[in-house]
Write a structure and sequence with these properties.
heterotrimer, A alpha+beta, B alpha+beta, C alpha+beta, B: alpha+beta, Uridine Diphospho-n-acetylenolpyruvylglucosamine Reductase, domain 3, Enolase-like, domain 1, 5-stranded antiparallel β-sheet, about 25% strand, C: alpha+beta, Aldehyde Oxidoreductase, domain 4, Aldehyde Oxidoreductase, domain 3, 7-stranded mixed β-sheet, 19 helices, 30 strands, binds flavin-adenine dinucleotide, binds FE2/S2 (inorganic) cluster
C-alpha cells in the first residue's frame, strides 16, 4: 500500500506516493529521476547516496521516504544556482578531485554538511567528516584539498 | 534487499499511541527510531516478517534535560545532538558519552538515536557500555504504564532486551554524582567507520582519599551482552588510582574476560586489547577528574 | 620539462568533471529504458553441489513475474569470461557455463527472474525451490591438491588448472656460485576490487533478434565477442553501447559476468529491456583479486650481486580458471622474473581450483602479489649482508638503453635508478634508523618498495592485446570529435585523449570532445587494461588526428595558396610556417570542406577554388610500436603502535618514470588512488569466507574494510622523473598499475624498520604485528 507524503526536494514541495519500504534513494533516482545520489552498497558506509535532510547529511539508502513528510531534502542537483556551480562543486572540479566520479555527489553533500557546521575545518576534521564516504579512485587527497579550497583555506593549484 | 513484507509505516504522535499499537500488532510490529540499525538487519535477512514499522520520530522524545542530580536523555536524541550538547561536553562525568558518539560517520550521527543504539542489544555498539558504566536506567513505556529498568537488567542476549512486546524506551536517566567522578570510552576499530572489535567504557570516582564505585564494561566481540569487569573494579575501589592500580585492574580485566574469535579478530587479540583499553581509559578518566 | 603545447603536460581539468559534480548522468547504472524489467538471480548456498530438481511453479505465479530461467533454459556452452582472451585464437581455459547443473562455489547463480520491479524479482527468486545433492567441497589449495581430493572439473588432474615453468641460464650453477641463499614464503590474500559502481547492465533485444546492451565494463568489443559466443550469435547481432564513463573498473570489469547474457536471454523471452545489477554483497561472491602464495629462493654474493632467483607460486583460482590462469603467468614472468636482473632464474607457477569464489583481475594483475615478496626479501637480504637496500636495487636492476633480457627490444627510456635516488633523498633515507630502535611505544620507520611495472602493456613488445582504432572528425565550428571504443574507467582517459588530439590539431582542448560510440560504428579497441590507455590509445588517437591534420592542411593549402608541407596549426588557426600572418581559422577550413563545391550566384554557378570536398576526417587502426616500460620507487614512513599493533602510514613519496606526463593532476590522482588501494591491500582488506561452508563473511562495508580519508596519509608526494620515450604519444609511457604494485612491499618494509617485526602474509593486521613482536 502506497502512502502519500509531501517533501520539499531541492526547494520544491513535491507530493510523493511511496511504498512503505521505499527508500529516499529509490524515490530520488527512480521516481524523480534525480540520479546524483548513487547506490554503492545500500547498507550504509559507502556514502554515495548522501543527501541533506533538513540540512543534515544522511544516507538516503537507509531512510524510508514515507517518514519524511514535511521535511526538506537537498540532493546534489539542488546545489548549482542557475548553472553556476556551488563553491564545493567548483572546488572539486578545480582541484581534480573527480576521477570516476561515482563517489563525488555523495562526497560533495557530506562536505556541504561539514562546512555548514564547521566553516574552517582542519585537515583532520575534514578527513573525519568525510569518513562516511568511500572513494576507490582518488585516495581522497584531492578531495581533502577541494574542501580546503571550498572553505577558503587554500587556493586551487 | 527491501523489507517487502512491510505494509505500513505508522507515525503515532504520543507515547500511549505507540504502546497501543505495539499491543495490538504484537510481534508483527517493530518500533523504528533512526532506522540505521534496522536497515542493516533487513539487509542481512534478519528481519523477515515485520509488517508494521512504528516511527518514533514524532513523539518529541529528542530532549536533553539536566538537573543537579541527573541527566535525562530522550530516546530519540541523536548522536549529533549528544555530541553538540554543551552540558555534556563540559562534564567529566559524562565525557564517555561524547567519546562514544565521536566514532561513527556523520551520516550515522545525524540519524542514529540513543534509544536505537541501546535497544538494538548488540554488543558491537558503543553507547550501551557507556550508559552501563554511568549506571543509567532506561524508562520503558507500555500499555500498563511506565517503569524504570536499570541498564544492567536490560540486556538479555544478542538482539534481545527485557522489554515486553508492548514496551519501548522513552528515555534514559543518568545519575550525576558529585565532583570527583569522570568517565571515558575508547574502542579498537579498523577504519574510522567501523563497529568495535573491542570497546571499553569506565567511570571512576575519587572518594574521601580512596576510589570507589568504579565501573568497567567491555563490548565488542566478547559475548552476547556487555561484560562487566568486576574483579578489576574491586582492585580499583579502595586504591588511589595510582598507575600501579590501573595496571593491575587492566590485568584483572584481561583475566576475567572471555572474548571470542571471528573473522575480524582472534580471541587472544581481543583479550589483550581489553587490557590496553582498560588501562588507557582509566588513565583518561583519572586525568578528567577535576 | 617544458610543455610541448598549451594542452599536453598541463593540469587540464577533467573533461567530464562538471557533469560529474552536478549529478553524473552518464553512468551505466542510470540507463533506464521504456518498459524496462528488472532481473535478479537465485544463488547457490552450497560450495559444491549438483542440482537435482528445480521447481519454479510458485515463483511463476507471483504477480509481476515475466520470465524465469533455469539451467534448462540457457545455453550450456563452455567459455572463458575474460575479455582479452577471444574464444577463437589464444589458448584459454573454457570451463565456465552460464548456469550449469553443477555449482562450484557459494553464490553461483542457479536461476534468474525478470519482473516488473526488483523486489518482485527478488521475491520470486526466493520462491524457487531447488533440491541439491551436496558434493564434497575443497576450500584450500592444499586440500585441492591432496591425493584423492574431489575433482572440481574433469579437465584437470589434482585440480591444477595451470602448471607452468620458466627457466633461464643455469639456476643450479647460480646456487653453487652464491655465498648466501635466502628462502622465504610470502602470502597474499583475496581482496575485492570494490569499484563503487557495481556491475550493472541493460539488455534490449529487438524484433529481429539483435541484442543491444549497456553495461559497466572495461571493454566494448570483449563484451560483444563473449556475449555473442555464449548466446550462439554472430557478433553482428550484438551491439554494445559505450557508456560516457563508468564508476571505476580497476580490472574488475574485464570479464563477462552472468548478468549480461542472463539479461539478454530474459529480454529475448519477454521482448522488453531487462536491467540487472549486482548488489554489493553479490560483488564479493563474483570475483576477487587472486590470492597467491610465493616461495622465493635467492642466491646472492656477499657483495650484493644476485646469482640466482628461484620462485614457486601457488594461486587459488577458485571455482573457474578465468583470470587465475592468466594472472599466474603475468605474476610469474612480468611480476617476478623480469623485475631484477639475474641470468639464472627458475619459476614454477600453478593455478589451482578450489570451491572458493572465482579469482579475478585487479590492478597490477599479479604484480602486487609478486612485489610483496620480492621487495621484502631484498630488504631481508640487505639486512643480513649489511647492504643498503637502495644501492642493492640499483646494482641488480636494468638501466636505460640496455637490451631486454628475454625479448627483442631495449629499455628505450628507463630512469629507475633516478627514481630510487630521488625518492630516497625526499623521504630522508640517509637518516633512517636501525630496525626497532625508536624507543616509544609508537614507533616510526621508513620502507621502500619498487614497482617496475611489467604488465602486458609494459613488455617492450608491440602488442599483447593492446591495439586500437579511432576516428577524428572536424566540425565547421573548428571543434573535433573523437570516436573510439576506449572507455573512460575513471582515470581521466577521455581528458588525456582530448589533450593529445588538441595538441596534434592545434586547437584548444575545450574544442575536442569524446563522442558516443558503439561496437557497430567504431573500430576495435583492446580493453582499458594493463595501464595501456595513455600509451596505446593515446598513440592511436594521435595518429588519427595526424591523419585529419593532413587533410586539414590540404584544404587549407588551397585557401592560403600554399603547399600543405609549409603549413602548421596553433590556437585554432592554420598558418604558413615562417609567415604566421598568412593564416586561416580551422573553423573556416572545416566549414569550407563541409560546404558545396559549387554555389549558385546571380552570375550563375560559381565553383570554389578549393577542389577537395567532404568532411575532414582522420582515422587510425594500429598497434603501439613498442610498449615502453615505466618504473617507480615508493618510500613510505609508518607509525606502529606496539601496544595495539595498529599501523598508520604517515607519509608517502613516490618517484616515477612514466615518460612524459600528459596531465600532472591526473597522474597524481593515479598515485594517490593507488595508495588507498595499496594501504587497504596491505593493512586491512580481506574478502573472507567461512572455512567450513565457503560462505562469504565480508559481504558489506561493515565487514570489508577499506581505508577512508581518515586512514590516508596527509602527505603524499608524487615525483615524476620525466623521460621522452620515442614509443609513446608525446613521449608518454604508462602509470596506473605501478601505483598498486609498490605499496605492499614498501609498507611491510617500513613496519619492519619501525619495529623489527617482519610479517610475510597479507593483510598485515594489528594482530599479526603483535604476534610478530612476540606480544601476543
Ligand atoms: C555505517 C554504519 C556505522 C555505524 N557505526 C557505529 C558506531 O561507530 N558505533 C555504534 O555504536 N553504532 C554504529 N552503528 C550502528 C547504529 O546503527 C546504531 O548504533 C544506532 O544507534 C541505532 O539507532 P537507530 O536510531 O538508527 O535505531 P533503529 O535502527 O531505528 O533501531 C534499532 C533497534 O532498536 C529498536 N528501537 C529503536 N528505538 C527504540 C526504542 N525507543 N525503544 C525500544 N526499541 C527501540 C528497533 O526496533 C530496532 O530493533 C553504525 C551503523 C552503520 C550503518
Ligand atoms: S548506498 Fe547508501 S551508504 Fe552506500
Ligand atoms: S572518484 Fe571514483 S570512487 Fe571516488
Amino acid at each position: 500500500m502506497k502512502q502519500k507524503v509531501t517533501i520539499t526536494v531541492n526547494g520544491e514541495p513535491t507530493e510523493i506516493w511511496a511504498a512503505p519500504h521505499e527508500t529516499l534513494l529509490e524515490t530520488l533516482r527512480n521516481d524523480m529521476h534525480l540520479v546524483g545520489a548513487k547506490q554503492g552498497c545500500d547498507t550504509g558506509g559507502c556514502g554515495c547516496c548522501t543527501v541533506l535532510i533538513d540540512g543534515q547529511s544522511r544516507y538516503s539508502c537507509m531512510t524510508y521516504t514515507v517518514t519524511l513528510d514535511g521535511r526538506d531534502v537537498t540532493s546534489v542537483e539542488g546545489l548549482a544556482d542557475n548553472g553556476e556551480l556551488d563553491a564545493v562543486q567548483q572546488a572539486f572540479v578545480d582541484t581534480g578531485a573527480v576521477q570516476c566520479g561515482y563517489c563525488t555527489c555523495g562526497m560533495i553533500m557530506a562536505a556541504k554538511h561539514l562546512l555548514s557546521v564547521n566553516p574552517k575545518p582542519t585537515d583532520r576534521e575534514i578527513r573525519k567528516g568525510l569518513s562516511g564516504n568511500l572513494c576507490r579512485c582518488t585516495g581522497y587527497h584531492k578531495i581533502v584539498e577541494a574542501v580546503r579550497v571550498a572553505s577558503g583555506q587554500q587556493e586551487a593549484s | 534487499m527491501a523489507l517487502t513484507t512491510l505494509e505500513e509505516i505508522l507515525q503515532p504522535e504520543s507515547v500511549d499511541e505507540v504502546a497501543e499499537l505495539l499491543l495490538s500488532h504484537g510481534e508483527s510490529a517493530m518500533v523504528m527510531a533512526g532506522g540505521t540499525f534496522i536497515h542493516g538487519l533487513v539487509a542481512r535477512g534478519l528481519v523477515t516478517d515485520v509488517t508494521k514499522l512504528i516511527d518514533l520520530s514524532g513523539l518529541g522524545l529528542n530532549q536533553l534535560q539536566t538537573d543537579r542530580k541527573s541527566l535525562r536523555i530522550g530516546s530519540a536524541v541523536t548522536f549529533a545532538d549528544l555530541e553538540g550538547s554543551e552540558t555534556i561536553r563540559s562534564s567529566a562525568v559524562l565525557a564517555a558519552l561524547v567519546d562514544a558518539v565521536s566514532y561513527p560517520p556523520q551520516q550515522i550521527k545525524n540519524a542514529a538515536t540513543v534509544g536505537g543504539c541501546v535497544a538494538s542489544a548488540c554488543p558491537y555498539l558503543d553507547l550501551p557500555i557507556v550508559l552501563l558504566a554511568l549506571e543509567a536506567s532506561a524508562t520503558a513505556a507500555g500499555s500498563t504504564g511506565k517503569r524504570e529498568i536499570p541498564l544492567d537488567e536490560l540486556f538479555v542476549s544478542l538482539f534481545q532486551t527485557s522489554l515486553n512486546t508492548d514496551e519501548f524506551i522513552t528515555g534514559f536517566t543518568v545519575p550525576l554524582p558529585s565532583a570527583g567522578t569522570a568517565s571515558s570510552f575508547e574502542k579498537i576499530e579498523t577504519t574510522a567507520n567501523d563497529l568495535s572489535i573491542v570497546s571499553v567504557a569506565v567511570r571512576v570516582s575519587t572518594g574521601w582519599r580512596k576510589s570507589r564505585n568504579s565501573r568497567i564494561f567491555v563490548g565488542g566481540g566478547i559475548g552476547e551482552v556487555p561484560f562487566r569487569c568486576r574483579a578489576a573494579e574491586v582492585i580499583l575501589d579502595g586504591s588511589k588510582l595510582e598507575d600501579e592500580a590501573l595496571r593491575k585492574a587492566a590485568g584483572a580485566a584481561v583475566e576475567e574476560i572471555e572474548p571470542f574469535g571471528d573473522h575480524r579478530a582472534s580471541a587472544e587479540y581481543r583479550k589483550a586489547m581489553t587490557g590496553v583499553l582498560v588501562e588507557r581509559n582509566l588513565r583518561q578518566a583519572r586525568a578528567r577528574i577535576q | 620539462m617544458a610543455t610541448i603545447s598549451d594542452t599536453v603536460g598541463t593540469r587540464v581539468r577533467h573533461h567530464d568533471a562538471i557533469d560529474k559534480v552536478t549529478g553524473g548522468r552518464g553512468y551505466p547504472v542510470n540507463v533506464n529504458l521504456a518498459g524496462m524489467l528488472h532481473g535478479r538471480m537465485l544463488r547457490s548456498p552450497y560450495a559444491h553441489a549438483r542440482i537435482v530438481r528445480m521447481d519454479i511453479d510458485e515463483a511463476k505465479t507471483l504477480p509481476g513475474v515475466r520470465a524465469i530461467l533455469t539451467p534448462d533454459d540457457v545455453p550450456q556452452v563452455k567459455y572463458s569470461p575474460i575479455y582479452f582472451m577471444p574464444t577463437e585464437g589464444l589458448a584459454c581455459i573454457q570451463d565456465m557455463t552460464l548456469m550449469g547443473r553443477t555449482v562450484r562455489h557459494v553464490g553461483q547463480p542457479v536461476a534468474a527472474v525478470a519482473a516488473d520491479t526488483m523486489e518482485i524479482a527478488e521475491q520470486a527468486a526466493q520462491l524457487i525451490d531447488v533440491e541439491y545433492e551436496e558434493l564434497p567441497a575443497v576450500l584450500t589449495v592444499e586440500d585441492a591438491m591432496a591425493d584423492g581430493a574431489p575433482a572440481i572439473h574433469d579437465y584437470t588432474s589434482g585440480n591444477v588448472a595451470v602448471d607452468e615453468t620458466f627457466e633461464t641460464g643455469d639456476p643450479d650453477a647460480g646456487f653453487a656460485a652464491a655465498d648466501h641463499v635466502f628462502e622465504q614464503t610470502y602470502e597474499t590474500q583475496r581482496i575485492n576490487v570494490c569499484a563503487l559502481e557495481p556491475h550493472v547492465c541493460v539488455a534490449d533485444v529487438d524484433a529481429y533478434g539483435n541484442v543491444t546492451i549497456h553495461s559497466s565494463m572495461q571493454h566494448l568489443f570483449g563484451l560483444r565477442e563473449k556475449l555473442a559466443f555464449v548466446l550462439g550469435l554472430p557478433v553482428s547481432k550484438v551491439k554494445v553501447v559505450k557508456p560516457p564513463y563508468i564508476g571505476g573498473g580497476f580490472g574488475g570489469k574485464l570479464d563477462i559476468t552472468p548478468i549480461e547474457p542472463l539479461s539478454a536471454l530474459l529480454s529475448m523471452e519477454t521482448h522488453r529491456p531487462v536491467r540487472m545489477a549486482l548488489s554489493r554483497a553479490e560483488e564479493f561472491v563474483t570475483s576477487n583479486k587472486c590470492p597467491i602464495r610465493i616461495r622465493l629462493k635467492t642466491g646472492v654474493k656477499s657483495d650484493g650481486t644476485i646469482t640466482v632467483r628461484e620462485a614457486s607460486s601457488l594461486l587459488d583460482a577458485g571455482a573457474y580458471a578465468t583470470h587465475g590462469s592468466t594472472v599466474i603467468m603475468v605474476h610469474g614472468l612480468f611480476g617476478y622474473c623480469f623485475t631484477y636482473k639475474c641470468p639464472n632464474r627458475r619459476w614454477h607457477g600453478r593455478s589451482v581450483h578450489t570451491n572458493n569464489v572465482t579469482s579475478g583481475g585487479f590492478r597490477g594483475y599479479g604484480g602486487p602479489q609478486a612485489s610483496f615478496g620480492v621487495e621484502q626479501q631484498i630488504d631481508e637480504i640487505c639486512e643480513k649482508l649489511e647492504l643498503d637496500p637502495v644501492e642493492f636495487r640499483i646494482r641488480n636492476s636494468h638501466s636505460e638503453g640496455e637490451d631486454h633480457p628475454f625479448f627483442d627490444g631495449t629499455f628505450t627510456t628507463y630512469r629507475f635508478h633516478e627514481c630510487l635516488r630521488k625518492g630516497a633523498e625526499r623521504i630522508g633515507w640517509s637518516d633512517r634508523t636501525a630496525p626497532g630502535s625508536d624507543p616509544g611505544p609508537v614507533k616510526t620507520g621508513i620502507g621502500l618498495g619498487c614497482a617496475v611495472t611489467w604488465t602486458s602493456n609494459c613488455t617492450a613488445q608491440p602488442d599483447l592485446y593492446e591495439h586500437s582504432g579511432a576516428f577524428i572528425k572536424l566540425n565547421p565550428d573548428g571543434s573535433a570529435d573523437i570516436a573510439s571504443a576506449a572507455i573512460d574507467i575513471g582515470c581521466g582517459q577521455n581528458t588525456i585523449f582530448c589533450q593529445i588530439v588538441a595538441a596534434e590539431l592545434g586547437i584548444p582542448v575545450e574544442m575536442v570532445r569524446m563522442s558516443s560510440a558503439d561496437t557497430s560504428n567504431v573500430p576495435f579497441d583492446a580493453p582499458m587494461h594493463a595501464s595501456r590507455g595513455t600509451n596505446a590509445v593515446g598513440a592511436t588517437v594521435k595518429a588519427a588526428a595526424a591523419d585529419a591534420r593532413e587533410q586539414l592542411f590540404r584544404v587549407a593549402g588551397t585557401m592560403l595558396d600554399a603547399s600543405p608541407d609549409d603549413l602548421d596549426a596553433k590556437d585554432g588557426r592554420v598558418f604558413v610556417k615562417g609567415a604566421e600572418i598568412v593564416s586561416v581559422s580551422i573553423a573556416e577550413v572545416a566549414a569550407r570542406a563541409d560546404s558545396p563545391l559549387v554555389t549558385m550566384t546571380r552570375q550563375g554557378p560559381q565553383p570554389d577554388a578549393t577542389p577537395y570536398r567532404g568532411t575532414i576526417i582522420g582515422s587510425a587502426a594500429m598497434n603501439p610500436a613498442v610498449s615502453p616500460i615505466p618504473a617507480g620507487a615508493m618510500f613510505v614512513q609508518v607509525a606502529v603502535n606496539t601496544d595495539t599493533g595498529e599501523v598508520r602510514v604517515l607519509r608517502a613519496v613516490y618517484a616515477h618514470d612514466i615518460g612524459r606526463v600528459i596531465n600532472p593532476a591526473g597522474a597524481e590522482g593515479q598515485v594517490e588512488g593507488g595508495l588507498q588501494q595499496g594501504i587497504g591491500y596491505t593493512l586491512m582488506e580481506h574478502t573472507q569466507f567461512d572455512p567450513e561452508t565457503g560462505a562469504c563473511l565480508s559481504g558489506d562495508f561493515l565487514d570489508y574494510k577499506m581505508p577512508t580519508a581518515f586512514e590516508m596519509p596527509a602527505e603524499i608526494e608524487c615525483i615524476f622523473i620525466e623521460s621522452d620515450d620515442p614509443n609513446g604519444p608525446f613521449g608518454a609511457k604508462s602509470l596506473s598499475e605501478c601505483c598498486l604494485i609498490a605499496p605492499p612491499g614498501a609498507i611491510a618494509n617500513a613496519i619492519y624498520n619501525a619495529t623489527g617485526a617482519r610479517v610475510r602474509d597479507l593483510p598485515i593486521t594489528p594482530e599479526k604485528v603483535l604476534r610478530a613482536l612476540g606480544r601476543l
